[in-house]
Amino acid sequence: MKGVDEPHQTIAPATRRWLLASAREALARAMGVSAEPPGPAPDDPLLDERRRLFVSWHDGPRLVGCIGTLQGERPLRDEVRYYAVQAGLHDPRTPMPTPDELPRLRGEISVLTEPVPMKEQGLAEITRALVPGRDGLVLRDGGRRAVFLPVVWSSLPTREAFVAALCRKAGIDAQRRGPFVRGERFLAEEFGE
Question: Element (H or E) spanning 190, and its range?
Answer without folding.
Answer: strand 188-192
